């Protein structure tokens, strides 16, 4: 098990950028696949991006070309760099971790991202 803590959310104008961070406490961070998800009011949770333990990445269609996920195993940290933000990107963003091939069963508390038009 790992404990996850997100930071970096806030209010930004459309077209702006933000970088979210997710710090993990616990052992063997490098063994975990890390993901970012988001949930807007009244909507289902949506997959945003993932970076596997071996470094491969995957993105949701709505963020491809605008968001970049990365990880620093020495700092036990996962990042989500977001560019060209749109109002529809507004949501609570959650960091999640899983030991492959399991499910995401470690979740952070979330960080709010609000994009104004």
Could you characterize the architecture of this molecule?
This protein has 117 residues and is mostly beta strands. Helices cover 0% and strands 52% of the residues. It is built from no helices and eleven strands. It has strands at 3-7, 10-13, 18-25, 33-39, 46-51, 57-59, 67-72, 77-82, 91-98, 106-107, 111-116. The strands form two sheets. Strands 2, 4, 5, 6, 9, 10 and 11 form a seven-stranded mixed beta sheet that branches. It has a four-stranded antiparallel beta sheet with strand order 1-3-8-7, with no helix packed on it. The radius of gyration is 13 Å and the shape is globular. The relative contact order is 0.32.
Question: Summed up, what is this model?
Answer:
The protein is mainly beta. It has strands at residues 3-7, 10-13, 18-25, 33-39, 46-51, 57-59, 67-72, 77-82, 91-98, 106-107, 111-116. The chain is built from no helices and 11 strands.
Q: Could you give the topology of this structure?
A:
Blueprint: E1 3-7, E2 10-13, E3 18-25, E4 33-39, E5 46-51, E6 57-59, E7 67-72, E8 77-82, E9 91-98, E10 106-107, E11 111-116
Parallel strand pairs: 2-11
Antiparallel strand pairs: 1-3, 3-8, 4-5, 4-9, 5-6, 7-8, 9-10, 9-11
């Amino acid at each position: 098990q790992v404990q996850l803590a997100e930071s970096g959310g806030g209010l930004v104008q459309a077209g702006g950028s933000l970088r979210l961070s997710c710090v993990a406490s616990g052992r063997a961070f490098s063994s975990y696949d890390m993901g970012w998800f988001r949930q807007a009011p009244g909507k289902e949770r949506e997959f945003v991006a993932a970076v596997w333990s071996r470094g491969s990445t995957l993105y949701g269609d709505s963020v491809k070309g605008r968001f970049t996920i990365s990880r620093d195993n020495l700092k036990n940290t996962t990042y989500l760099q977001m560019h060209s933000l749109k109002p529809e990107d507004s949501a609570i963003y959650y960091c999640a971790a899983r030991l492959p091939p399991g499910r995401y069963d470690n979740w952070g508390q979330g960080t709010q991202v609000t994009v104004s038009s």
